[in-house]
Input
Amino acid sequence: MELVFATNNKHKTIEIGRILGENRTVKSLPEMGFKGDIPETGKTLEENALQKARYIKNQLGTDCFADDTGLEIDALNSAPGVFSARYAGPEKDSLKNMEKVLRELKNCRNRKARFRTVIALIINNEELLFEGIVNGSILENPRGEKGFGYDPVFLPEGYTLTFAEMSLDEKNKISHRALAVKKLADYLKTLDKE
Output
């Protein structure tokens, strides 16, 4: 089964493709020949994920899924949240985003945070949402070279390695995206049985 993932992010496409397994081929927007930006004007992760999936469904006419992920930091009133990718500006610069978070948390003791992913699936003219959450904390200094986004400063609860220090397979066992994708995969398995 082939599914279109409403993203231009090759890292996310690889990550999700691995989690969904060999029975599913996940195609990104560039692989489908789609160029351009997808609107993201929702005020919540759920709204953004649905907006992206609906837009691609209308553009390509194919079943698809989209995700939206946010880093929610307690001391920042759950910011950056839905604005995580553009926190330091519209250019979506991961390094600048991370630096802004670290500046805002300077001298702050409460560093509790969570990554939350919402996946919107449109399949057989039905819309479904799947959520994954991983709790953790924000370090004072980045660690690790792997991953992307805020991974170098996010330490998942109960672990000694940041997401950026873990292999992709290690991260895929516990990440917010992995948890949401596993729920998506479980749902897709029920369709296989019909």
Observations:
- Strands lie at 2-5, 25-27, 64-73, 79-81, 112-123, 126-138, 154-156.
- The domain at 2-193 is CATH 3.90.950.10 (Maf protein).
- The first strand starts at residue 2 and ends at 5.
